[in-house]
Amino acid sequence: MPENTNGNTIEKAGGENLTENTKKDPPLVRIHSECYTGETVWSARCDCGEQLDEAARLMSLPGSGGGIIIYLRQEGRGIGLGEKLKAYNLQDLGSDTVEANLLLRHPADARSYGLATAMLQDLGQEEIRLLTNNPDKVRAVEGPNREIVVKERVPMIPLAWRGKTGGIRSQEVGGYLKTKLLQIEKMGHMLQMGDA
Ligand SMILES: Nc1nc2c(ncn2[C@@H]2O[C@H](COP(=O)(O)OP(=O)(O)OP(=O)(O)O)[C@@H](O)[C@H]2O)c(=O)[nH]1
């Protein structure tokens, strides 16, 4: 995987067809935030590992035209692995993911997406289809002058909600997704059960 000096990476999936496809439709893009626990051991506390795999799968489907995965080193929504583990302890005591961050004196979400905007510009992309449920990500990646235009938001629906096999199923991930689902004003996520 190509890597810049900070460890943030860009992966072009199905690259052979990407150039051809960009002439027709904007490419499918996933901007993924590092999650050591979710990606390496498929921790049952979040669906991050599933999301990364699902993005790659969608981009490799026949006829999909490929896509771009940008992997940002923003572990724990930007607070780092150590602080995320402290947040997990607070969640075990009853806080949700947002409350735990705030109790640790961190913002609910400490990430930024300027680097992703720059990477997409480097790749010559002006219009994209973004695979996400996070409206903040859509706004942020577009940049202050809409350097990148998100022509379409493609929902990222957990496999378990689609009745598919595989995917993360646990009480903890249920709570994690519920925080996104029910606390729109806290997380601003667009995840809806109706998407399933
Ligand atoms: N602080 C904190 N971060 C978490 C927790 N669980 C997962 N993460 C981090 O959350 C990030 C993924 O963010 P999400 O909010 O799940 O998803 P998103 O990227 O905002 O939105 P989507 O594009 O819809 O997936 C990764 O960096 C994970 O390490 C948690 O309980 N607390």
From TrEMBL:
It catalyses: GTP + 4 H2O = 2,5-diamino-6-hydroxy-4-(5-phosphoribosylamino)-pyrimidine + formate + 2 phosphate + 3 H(+). The keyword Membrane does not apply. Residues 1-25 are annotated as: Disordered. The keyword Disulfide bond does not apply. GO terms for biological process: riboflavin biosynthetic process. Its EC number is 3.5.4.25. Keywords: GTP-binding, Hydrolase, Nucleotide-binding, Riboflavin biosynthesis. Belongs to the GTP cyclohydrolase II family. This is GTP cyclohydrolase II. It comes from Glarea lozoyensis (strain ATCC 74030 / MF5533).
